[in-house]
Amino acid sequence: MTAKPLSGKELAASIREDVTARAARLTDAGTPPRLTVVTATKDESSAWYVSSIAKAATKAGITCDVLDCGPDAPADALRETLRKLSADPAVHGIIMQTPLPEGIRLDDVAEAIGTDKDVDGANPSSLGRLAVGRPAFAPATAEAVIELLDHHQIPVPASDVAVVGRSAVVGKPLAHLLLNRHATVTVCHSRTRDLPAVTERADILVAAAGRAGLITADHVRKGAVVIDVGTNVAEDGSLVGDVAPQAAEKAAALTPVPGGVGPVTTALLLRHTVQAAEQQRT
Ligand SMILES: NC(=O)c1ccc[n+]([C@@H]2O[C@H](COP(=O)([O-])OP(=O)(O)OC[C@H]3O[C@@H](n4cnc5c(N)ncnc54)[C@H](OP(=O)(O)O)[C@@H]3O)[C@@H](O)[C@H]2O)c1
Question: What does the alpha-carbon distance between residue 177 and residue 175 come to, in Å, rounded to a whole number?
Answer without folding.
Answer: 6
